[in-house]
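Submission sheet (multi-component)
Chains listed below:
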Amino acid sequence: MNYSIFITGSPTQSRACQSALSFAEAAIASGHTIQGVFLYEEAVLLANAFAMPPRDESNLRAEWVAFATEHNIPLKVCIAAAIRRGILNPAEAQRHELNHHNLSEGFELEGLGSFIDMSLGSDKVMRFK
Amino acid sequence: MTAPELFDEEGYLLDLNDWNESLAQEVAAKEGLDLTPAHWEIIHVLRDFYTQFEVSPAMRPLVKAVTKALGPDKGKSIYLMQLFPGSPPKLAAKIAGLPKPANCL
Amino acid sequence: MKDTLIYLSSSPYQSTAAKEALDLALVLGTFEQPVSLCVTGDALAILSDGQAPSQRHGKHLFKLLDGLEFYDIENVYVRDSEISQLSSPLWSGVQALSDEQWHTMLQQPAAIYRF
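Outcome: structure written.
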């Protein structure tokens, strides 16, 4: 089965990002494939490179990026939802005339249409809220 | 000339209330367009759409709105592409003083 | 073609969920994907006629309802049993379903996104 993963739950207010990672790891381990991961609503905060968990806690963002890099899975972030919540890449920072940008490496800002494409290219969408 | 601080980096109007027809002409001129009556009727359809629904339409809804307002001959993407080359929803929104259509790829 | 249902139960004034749910619905429509909406619980406030949110309240989502037809979103479902308890008039484009029809409707789409 080829899955798309759609995460909308906040990385701090819900377990959505953790559960999605556990699911994705289990799916790959069982021989399934992951078309891509799309972050929407509060889940876009996972891509905030300025969010620093204490060193003796797990860094979910780093774990996601390592997993996605190893398995060549795109990590896409809804551009409108991200900008609304202060997650900007260099191009958006420039567009909004800001000196800083904080979209973590390993993530890309994309339109919601790219989620539609992703879901059409997969057998099932798993949503984590 | 218009003060540049009326616009964002991409040339979209920051405050929708600042829009007027001569401003639209200046924006169009910067984009290399000379506004004809054919352009104006699309701009008005677009502004009506935004006023009614509070959203800048992407291509498909724009085509439908033009069809409804001006008839099927004009409600075609080819026709809109001729008037507003490249991306009609983005270019026409820019000239009409509306926000950039969200999630436009 | 997969049918998608956007299932709205969040209040439009409590969070950005309703706004972001409708954004998803509009993009599905723009991409020519069949999409319907159903509205229940706190989300029914979206449909109340005569509301006048300020900019601070958020976007005027009620105004967007009349624009859904331009995105080929033709079905906005509500439940008879819920709306019969409401005092304010609702947006006229809704399709009111009996509880039985509601449950049948929920079984049709290939994907349901709850907001």
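Remark: Chain A has one domain: 2-128.
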